[in-house]
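To: structure desk
From: M.T.
Subject: fold request, one chain
Message: Could you run this one when you get a chance? Sequence is below, nothing fancy, just the single chain.
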Amino acid sequence: MRRKTALVLLALAVFFTALSPLLRWYAFPRFAKVPANRYQDVVLEAKGATLLDYNSMKARKVSKVTIVQTLKGNVEASEAIERSAHRDVVVWDGLSYVQGPDGKMVSKIPERYIFDAHSQEPVHATGEMVDGDPVKRQGIEFKWPFLTEKRDYQYFDMQTRTTSPIHYEGTRNFRGIGVYYFEQTVPWTQVRFPKTMPVAGITPESVAKTGTTIWYTTVRRFWVEPLTGAPVYGEEIHKEELRGGTLLGGREKVTAFAGHVKMREDYIEHTVDLVRSSRTLVLLMTSYLPWGFLVLGVLLLSLSLWLEARSRRPAGPAPAEDTEPEPVTA
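Reply: Done. Structure tokens follow.
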């Protein structure tokens, strides 16, 4: 009986020990992915910003500028691309909507971001664009890979339509969560005017005829939770200028927008709570279950060997039976 139990325990020990690395190195890379139907939005604010008044073409201080960023998963488009790409693909239709303190639109820039659901690497397909212009992204945007590493990454900048390194600057603690801090500086670069302008009748084409150009620079900062690859907080020191041309009335340049853009507090709290719950699921598959199964396998193996040793132990001599002495007769 002991030997049969030992064999069963040995089989279970082998099973759980083999399951440990399989869960971590085979199952997790296949199960961990960004859902195709995900929807999220975030509100950022630049308080005490400088904003261009297009009626007077003069920069003025305003109480705040609000930026609403929306990402909506396009399931139908992702399924269509998956059939030809033969891998899990996510399509995000995004919109960056900027409004002044009076609630009026300053700019809005749509984009379509297509990427691998597991690695977050860009997937090039028809429809990939920024503000209606076809692009071919290199590097990540919005989200880092699962199990983010302590290294620099290539990050795509929507304004310039170019990719440059975003540098790992160390480990930080953000509201009780260990995060990696990344920073990217985009130098002054001439960019395109948004196709939707804040003043009726003004178009990028009409502005281009005046010879006036728009330039942009930013310092981009992210605090990224490394297990999920999700930024728990982000901010930018953002500047835009109009330069040259007849539109400025002989001035060399004028500030179109300048401000320190930060996530609004209620969205920070929501993001932190969401990342905490997602982090637990990743830990379950990368740490808790693999190590738990490994320890369980070792315990079962030890118990199996102990029972096997007990079953092989030789039995002691049988106890002598008490017998009545035979009577002696003459």
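Reply (cont.): The CA atoms of residues 105 and 328 lie 126 Å apart. Let me know if you need anything else for the meeting.
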